[in-house]
Amino acid sequence: MSEQQSSWVVSTPPQDASTAPLLHANGLHAGYGARSVLRDIALRIAPGECVALLGPNGAGKSSLLKALAGLLPVTAGTITIAGKNLSAWRADALAKQRAYLGQQAEVHWPLPVREVVALGRLPYGHRQLTPHDEHCIDRAMQAADVHALAQRPVTALSEGERARVLIARLFATEAPLLLADEPTAALDLAHQHQLMQLFRQHCQRGGGAVLVLHDLNLAARYCDRVLLLQHGEMVGQGSPTEVLTAAQLAAVYGVEAEVLQRGDGLQLLFAPR
Amino acid sequence: MTAATDARLRSPSTHHDRASKVATALLVALLLLLLLAISLGKVTFTPVEIVQSLRDDTPSLVRTIVVDIRLPRALLAALVGATLALAGAALQGVFRNPLAEPGLIGVSSCASLGAVLAIYYGLSQMAWFVLPTLAIVGALFGVTAMLLLAGRRAATVSLLLAGVAVNAFAGSCVALALNLAPNPYAMSEMVYWLLGSLANRSHAELQLVLPFIVVGLLLCWRQRRLLDALSLGEDTAQSLGFAVNRQRLLLLLGVALAVGAAVSVSGSIGFVGLFIPHLLRPVVGQQPSRLLGLSALAGAVFLLAADLLVQQIPSAQELKVGVITALVGAPFFLLLVLRHRSLST
Predict the structure, then answer these.
(1) Nearest 5°: phi and psi at A272?
(2) Which pLDDT value is given to residue B197?
(3) Which of A141, A180, A260, B63 is the 20 to 30 A CA-CA neighbour of B214?
(4) B229, A123: Cβ pair inside 8 Å?
(5) pLDDT tens digits for A115-167?
């Protein structure tokens, strides 16, 4: 298999955007109605950066990801994507620039796997799939390891297989900025690492990724930065080494953690307090 | 990778092939049925007789029967069938539930209520558009009630319960309206609205509803890709560039326009929107957008055939076509419910 097929080629961002961050959120407040779930968040994703959103249940990780994707009303602060205010984007152009994978991965009809992945090409509005569309779909299916399932009805798959199909859908969109909510949750160990490597490759080619993760070791190993949330507020942001300290983990997660420095990064060992 | 596996992996194209074959067959069937519909009746004409009468400019009995009596009825049957089936497919896509259907969820009965009010209170004589408009307003009410009661992604139980409630409410309002109506024939004519019939329809009725149905179906058709996107949920659809709320409203408006107009001339004909999309779903590879056009075609064929059938069955009083669709559709509905139940347990 050629190098071309096995790896991600992110569509080259426009010239002026190469200097602009893929995503820039500042002083961000967001909420559902009167209830504010996020307060004063700042986040900047430069091309090549993979950032993990961490925090205990209810900390606001999913809400932050939705707000960044433009799915949750922002009550204060700004979000710019590729240098342009989120609200100034046309919906179809934005859909090609950032792709979003939600947490409750659902498919409502027994669509064949390949048709589900092909939905990632909807923002391009082609009546018929173009050869390039087909190419993106095939490549995404190979990368997410669902190629062999192409004709299976998606509703007949296991949870982990279905999650990988939806990951392939995410990548098939070819958006430079990927936002994914717990993409590794249903995956087995090998596929978790494969997927994180996919996100890394995506970033190495000039893309960016914001991932909600529960597995701190995955975050520490594959992400350039982590953003730690608690009660809707940012309690730390920086490299995994800076943020994931034993003291911080005890304060936020309420767990006793042993933080080991390994050759290729951190390793965290946990014991309930 | 070999060419053979490549072709297998790309096999959605076989769905396209299959769908276009089915579409061609349905189109041929539709044309044949239209031909049959203008030939058959109390007097049967041969195609030669029909062509001859059409060639002559002089008015003839054959011409009157074919052009003024049989043709509008046949066209209306096809149009109403297409509307109901496409509306069913669209509603199923929006609610992401295979049991959503204009009749079952109460859109048709709300439209009937509007039509009954227009007819029995003399409002329809005020202007030509009053009858379809009131039926459309009724249909809109039904769609809105459904959105509010069952939610935007309706679980089967809440969908069916909301449908029962809306149907019961609209049905009792129809009965009340007819009880209070000044017209002594009201009760007997109510059968039209409850059972659905296409007997004695003329060009006037066809022209009355055609614009509303065309606009309604076009509105639905334009939002077809939204239905594909919605199969991944609302957030994902939104992230793929769809204005989910606005587009869904447009689509439901289209459903209300088309179904309301159809019901205002045919009464409420049930189940067509349920089993036609269901049968065709495997043909189009389960894709909601591609279900719309094919369902419309199959709905036209089915209702035209059913309407021909009721005209051929010898009986003292002509059978209502809604009876046939219910006879076919109700067992099918039960089957679907049973299968749904076994899937969810």
Answers:
(1) -60, 145
(2) 84
(3) B63
(4) no
(5) 999 999 999 988 889 999 999 999 999 999 999 999 999 999 999 999 999 99
- What does the pLDDT look like over B127-174, one tens digit per residue? 878 888 999 999 999 999 888 888 777 777 788 888 889 999 998 988
- Cβ A210 vs Cβ A23: under 8 Å: yes
B233/A108 touch (CB, cutoff 8 Å), yes or no: yes
Q: What is the pLDDT of residue A184?
A: 94
> Touching check for B96 and chain A: CB below 8 Å?
yes
Unique residue bearing structure tokens 């009010």: B117
Assembly ipTM: 0.89
Cβ-defined contact of A123 to B153 (cutoff 8 Å): no
| A91, A107, A147: residue with CB nearest B231 | A107
Contacts of B245 (CB under 8 A, 6+ apart): none
pLDDT in tens, A196-206: 999 999 999 99
B240 in A contact zone (CB under 8 Å): yes
Question: What SS3 state is found at A240?
Answer: helix
Q: Does the global pTM surpass 0.95?
A: no
